[in-house]
Design goal:
It is built from two helices and no strands. The protein is mainly α and 73 residues long. Helix 1 packs antiparallel against helix 2.
Length: 73
């Protein structure tokens, strides 16, 4: 026997989507800080992984039309 749950209300789905975008922006900003720290230590190979994370986050935010969350970075 499987339990069924009711779908989330649209307002909850929208709130979760907004939260996910904000978390993506935080991940971008964290990766940018990490990249700066690695560059200061001349760890340029380490910068590549941080830049990959930044690129992935930027693509997600761009697709959602929310680059404004990171443009000040």
């Amino acid at each position: 026997m499987s339990a069924r749950t009711a779908p989330l209300p649209p307002a909850a789905v929208e709130a979760m989507a907004r939260l996910e975008l904000r978390l993506t922006a935080v991940r971008y900003l964290d990766a940018a800080d990490h990249c700066r720290a690695l560059a200061a230590c001349a760890d340029f190979d380490g910068c590549l992984a941080a830049q990959d994370e930044m690129r992935m986050c930027r693509c997600q935010l761009d697709a959602a039309g929310r680059l404004d969350l990171i443009e000040a970075a």
